[in-house]
Structures are given as structure tokens and as C-alpha cells.
Fold these 2 entries.
Entry 1:
Amino acid sequence: MRGSGFVVAALFATLVTSPAAAQAAGTFEFGAFGQATYFDNTLQFPQAKGGAGIHLGFFPARNWEVEGEGSFTPTPGPGDSKVYYIPLRARLLFNIPAGSHSALLIGAGYVHNEYRHDADFHDDGATALAGVRFGLNGLPSIRLTSYLDYIPSPANGAGDNLNWGIQVGLSFLSGERTSAAPEPARAEEPDSRQKPARIRCVRRRCRTRSAPQKPRRRRQPRPRRGRRTALGWLRRRLPRRRRRCRTAWWPPRSRTASAPRR
């Protein structure tokens, strides 16, 4: 009941709070979680035992995260024994952006299991993880994941072991972060020296728009007078005088050859 109440509260907080954006290179992630572990049947441990753990991650590239994780789960063993289950995991995670406010987590890696207290053995295997991270703006992110551990050669002598579980916790993200929606750039205010000229132009524009515009009068072409008209008149008159002079005085006639005048 307590675990289900925690999950409901986490989902409610996610709905009422705007989450953060996807992470860029150089971001660190640190978180704590509670988990419910389901052991392989060959181990003869009770199922759905609760535990706690921490994880630490680093983003060497955008959306890629290298993560280490450790947890502690006390559980009763066969008979009256008590066993401490301590898994240590190292994995590579890929964060798939799901919209602008959340991301899907998919990863795989290596797991080392330690069994302590009344038991003393360990085994190694492979691990896989899938889940989702709900980012919160200015608050820790909520992380819900499920893991699966495959042990090909377990210490109990069985063929193989499969342990899986569910984890719910909070993550703290720090470092470089790319915002989901970049803020619009503010327009630079004009210089105080340019403000009067701008106001003057606006006033002049308003004045020209509001005042009725008079129709423009076309200028009538002026008649050509003066020198050009006089020269043209002389050119028209001059050939006539020359023609008269040629007929009257050119070429000159000798008085001897000319007929006597009557």
C-alpha cells in the first residue's frame, strides 16, 4: 500500500509541474530510488521484497548516459536464515526524447550480485533496463524503471537465473541543459539620439496621411523664344539673299561684253 501511494503521488506531481528539457553533454545525474525485487525460483527467496538504492550517471554526449547503480535488499533465506542481496550494475543508457518534457530510457550493461549475512556467494551476468523519466522544472525528476538481470552461471548451481524488479525514485540533474523552447531574443531599444528623428518621421507620415492631398498641376511647356527662334529665322532668310546676290552680282560681268543699256 505504501509503494502504490508513492507511485500515485509521483505521477500527480508530474502532471501538475512542467518538466525539464532533454539533457546535453556534460550533465550529471544523481538519484535515489526504492525497488521491489523478484528473484529466480531456484534461489528460494520470497518475492516482491522491498529495498533501496542510489544511481549516478554522466552524459558524455547528448542523450547518451553512462550510469552506475547499487542497491540493498534484505530478504529471508531458506530456513531461518537472513540474506542481504546487494546488486552492483554498470550500464549505458540512451535517453529518447518523448515530446519536449519527458524521455524514454533504454540501456544494457553488466551486473555483479553479492549475497551476504547468512550467505556468502556472488555471481555475474548481464542486465537490461527500460523506463521513463519525467522532468520537473526546478525540482527533482521522477524516474520509473524496470530492470532484468540474466545470470548464465549462478552460484547456486542452477542452469541460469533471472532476477527482475521495479524501481521508482527521484533524480537530480545538474550541468549543461538545453531548454525546450528558447527564449525569443529581445529587440534592442533604439539609441536616445535616434528617437527624436524616428518620432519626427512618424509625425510627418501621419500628417501626410491625414491631410487631404491636392492634385498636382502639370506645368505647361513654355514656347521657345529668343536666340533659337531668331537664328532659325535668319537661316530661313539667308539663302534667299544669297540666291539673289548670285543672280544679280555673281559672277561679275565685264563692261565690254555687256550689252549697252537702253
Entry 2:
Amino acid sequence: MGSFQAPRQDGLIGSRPAPDSLVTGGATTISDETSEGHAAAIQTSALASIVSTPHDANGTFHQPRQSFAAVVGVLAHNEEATIETSLRALLEELSVCTHVKALVVVASGCTDSTERIVQSLAEHDNRVRLIAEPRRSGKVAAINVLLRETSEPVVVVIGGDMVITKGSLAKLLAPFEDAQVGMTGVRPIPTNPRVGLVGAAVNILWDLHHELSLDTPKLGEAVAFRRIVPGFDRGTVFDEATMEHLVRSRGLRLKYVPEATVRNRGPETLREYFLHRSRNIREHLALASTTGYRVSTLSTRKCARAVWRLWRKGERPKYLAATIAIEALASLRARLWLVSGRRDTNIIWRPITTSKQVVANGHSMRAHYDGWRTIEFKLAHRVLSNHARKNHIDLAEIRRAVRSDDRVVPKRNSILVSVRGDGVATEAVSARLSGAFADLARQGSESIYSDLPVATRLEGPPNRANGH
């Protein structure tokens, strides 16, 4: 019922034909025997197990310049909060992206309603196929299932807890018209409000990744790559970084596509954020020690330049400093772990429980801007105060009237409101404040750093005040 039956890749190096899967109503259920048998079969390292594809005498991979087919794989584990929004956004992209005909969801060990939601969509849209794993074996195992069950030459991998923005899938795949491009990556933009230490750190972290990737691509969250490997070794943990190394080692290029964006949700507690960063850094260091390949985030010089650029764009120094401090501590913890020789237990990562819901109930997904616009308001008769008193304007009331990401800075006889947005957003905030506070008279506005919007898809009910 509405299932997409993609041919299997049984003839790949380092693998053997897998037992038949159980197909029921548009879904494929991988039995424990199938999953374990296939995992045991892929013992040859992914760094050596390359699919038989055109190579020259130097071992450089060549892909003929032609129209190509691609498959989108969505990896999910207990993603009931976001999976339907994620899939509907992808299906909308498939309607205009001629390269992609199928959407394969690999649901691993789900104990919530994720599989039911996906199956319901599959019954009404034959482009959706569900592959259900009874046990969660880790992200690499899920990618191996995806590679085994599909055959398209280009593979897109995205998490079920992310929402792709309008037009981004086509932009992510467009570079593959160049035969020398082996892997592309999107720009992840978190929906966490820039409020408090953790909210600011999550946004700054991804802004740093963006600045770094503009110079040296660091790809993750949602990527596309040519099918140059049959699968990953069972012990591989950080598959995107490993895939980067494989692509580079075959003479192909990495391509960062900042115009292609996904919205994700970062950790909301300091503990989860710190553990998440320690884990990522540890796996990057392990990859560097075994292969010599260092992702750009391990370069202190490149990171320092990215921090400087963010500061020039208006990022608050105290949050930049705090983010750097957390990163330094996470790096120290990761290095101590590796030096201690402790056994890695992160083949199956512990989920970040606070990052599952990209869009909060009742909120909308706002357009993202890198730049700030500052509006100056003159105080006509009254003065600012931290408390509501006669002849005083309460600062707290003003802050409640703008979005949580906007900044309110009091001056002697005026107030500055910095808006992360374009002219339309600036006018909307100005009108809202002028209507609510008769004693505020707008003096003008100034663009600190202007840019074009990204991630403009709206989700959910109409926006509320301070919505994210």
C-alpha cells in the first residue's frame, strides 16, 4: 500500500545478500536476524570498501556529467514531535525536485508513535517508504540499512528531528551536476531563542560552523553524497566526518551550500549541551588520530577568525566568551577521555531529549537573518525605569512587546531596539512599540549588518508575541 520498492545493493564489496525483509502495508520491517546479519557482514572498513565505480590510474573517482537520481533517507528514533512536519516539508520539496522520486524513513527502535505517523503518510503518498528496525543499533547502522535498501547514485541523509526549508533540497543537490563534487551539506539554523547562556551558545555554535564552512566546508545535520561506499564499518561513529574523509580521499570536493538550510533544535540544558559537544569533539579527535583527517572545527586559527567575524557582525562579547569557554572545557574533557584509553560506548548515542521539538506548539518558524537593524526611539515626556512608576516607562513592558531575540538598550533620553531581521521586521516592531507606548517617538533606524533572509518557511498557527 503506497510502498516504494527500491532495488537492493546485494552485490556490494564487503556485504552479502541479506535475508528477506517483512513487507507489510508500505513498510519494511527489518528482523533482528537481518539487522545483525548485515552488520556482521560489513566488517571491512568503510575506508577500504569502495564500490566498483569509474576511477583513473591515480584512484580518482569520476562521475559522468549527466542527470542523476537521488534518494532521501530520513533517520528517526522517537521523533513523534517533529517527524510529520519534517516529512511534509520534504514531500513538498520532492514535488519540485526532479532528481528525487522516493523518501525512505529508517525508524530504529521507536517506542512512541513515530512509525504510526510515517505509515499513515505512506498509505496516502506512494513516495514514502518506511523501514522499521525493532532495535536501535545506532545512526551508522541505520545508514547501512538505507544504503542496502536503495540504489540511487546520490544519497541525501537527514534526521527526523529537522525541518528542511523551501527550495533547499534542490539547492543541496544542484552541485552534483559537477562531476567533481562528492558531498554537499546544508546550513543548520537552530530554532532555540537567543535567550540565556544555552540559547545563545547553541546559536553561536552553529553561526561559527557557518563562518568556518564558508572557508573550509564542515558538513553535517543534512548532507548529500555520491554512493562511493557500500556502508560504514560497524565501529564507525561520526559518519559525516568519515564521509568527508572518504570523499576527499577519492579526489572529490566538498561543497557547503549555505542557501540550503534546515531548522533544528539544540539542547536546552547546559548539561546536555556540554555532553553533546564533548562527544562530538571526541569523535573528531579519534578520526584525526586514525586517519589524519581533521575537520575545520579542530583548527584554533580558523575558529578564532570565525569568532572575530561574529563579533564584527554584532554578536554579544559575553556570550561569545562563554561559548568559547564551554567549548574549551568540552575539548579538554574529550582529550582526557581519549588519553585515558577508555572504551568508546557512543556507537549508539544517547538522544538529546530537549532537542526533539523544532517548532513549539502554538509558535511559528520565523525567517532567519544574520544581520541586525537598530531602531532609535526618543522619549517624549517620560523616562525609562526598571519598575512601573508615574511618569516612567517600564523597560520590562517594552521587552515583553518585542521578540525574545530582539535587544532593548536604554539610553539617557532614548531607547535603542535591535531587531534581527530585514526592513519589514523593523517596521513591524516599530509599529508595535509606537502603538503600545505613545511617548516613544521613532528617530530613525540603522542597519548594523544587512543580509538576505534564509529559512522562510512558516509552520503552525499564526505567530505570537515572542514566538520562535
